[in-house]
Design brief:
Elements (H helix, E strand, L loop, with lengths): L12 E4 L5 H12 L3 E6 L12 E2 L5 H14 L5 E4 L14 H21 L1 H5 L5 E5 L12 H21 L5 E7 L2 E2 L4 H7 L1 H7 L6 E2 L1 H11 L10 E4 L3 H4 L8
Parallel strand pairs: 1-2, 1-4, 2-3, 4-5, 5-6, 6-9, 7-8
Helix pairs in contact: 1-8, 2-3, 3-5
């Protein structure tokens, strides 16, 4: 995707949380290639060493969310796009789940996007396209045995997306979600290989594991004026994976 595809994007300002690696880094790069000024966020020192300027904040508590909102306000007087991408995943079956894992997962994956969006309403209200995109998962609807905290957090974020869409429409702010399926990153490549890439290719109707680039066009669309009448929507990008309704062995 280029600026020619979305001519209103050059000059826009975006915040992408969790954008120093993985899906977030790929999405930030796609936005930058389209002419968007991207404020990148990372939670710690280790994931930001190679980048010139990253807004550092731990989104596992209210203070970290407030800190990130302050850092953004120091760097821009408007925000055209907020991508709530930062997240954690610590797979545990219910019998092995402890309160700390559950609370941290819900704090980072659900509470932080909601509270950060609230804190940035004034900057978003001053933006042009005024778009919020929440990164959820196909597991906001499809059960994933052995990962109850993550599933609950993404299901909650999807419900919050629809509710925020209703409440923020008065400000002209659109709120949508992208629900990825199996997307290969540096962090999960080893797991894909362990489970068997050929298995994923047989489970996914389009016969391949997704790439971060497969998400980029959807984000550019939701960030641009091309989606000006789209809010409260969930865009699934999974190669048809969730439609197959297949169990893939993590619960055995």
């Amino acid at each position: 995707m280029t600026t020619a595809s979305f001519p209103d994007l050059p000059g826009a300002v975006a915040l992408v949380t969790g954008s120093t690696r993985g899906i977030g880094a790929g999405l930030a790069a796609a936005l930058e290639a389209a002419g968007v000024r991207v404020l990148r966020h990372g939670s710690g020192q280790s994931d930001v060493a190679a980048m010139e300027e990253v807004l550092r904040a731990d989104l596992s508590d209210d203070a970290g969310v407030a800190q990130l909102a302050r850092l953004v306000a120091e760097r821009t007087d408007r925000l055209d796009l907020l991508v709530n991408n930062a997240g954690v995943e610590v797979p545990r079956a219910l019998k092995d789940l402890d309160g700390d894992i559950l609370r941290r997962t819900l704090d980072v994956n659900l509470a932080a996007p909601v509270l950060l969006t609230r804190a940035l309403i004034p900057l978003l209200s001053s933006g042009r396209n005024r778009s919020v995109v929440n990164m959820t998962s196909i597991h906001d609807e499809v059960a994933y045995a052995g990962n109850i905290a993550y599933v609950a957090s993404k299901a909650g974020l999807e419900a919050a997306t629809r509710t925020m869409a209703l409440e923020l429409a008065v400000h002209g702010i659109r709120v949508n979600s992208i629900a990825p399926g199996a997307i290969e990153t540096d962090m999960n490549r080893e797991v894909i290989e362990q489970m068997g890439r050929h298995n994923f290719e047989s489970w996914i109707p389009l016969k391949r594991v997704g790439a971060i680039d497969d998400l980029a066009g959807a984000l550019l669309y939701l960030a641009s004026d091309a989606s000006r009448y789209v809010t409260g929507s969930r865009l699934v990008i999974d190669g048809g994976y969730s439609q197959a309704l297949l169990r893939y062995g993590l619960d055995t």
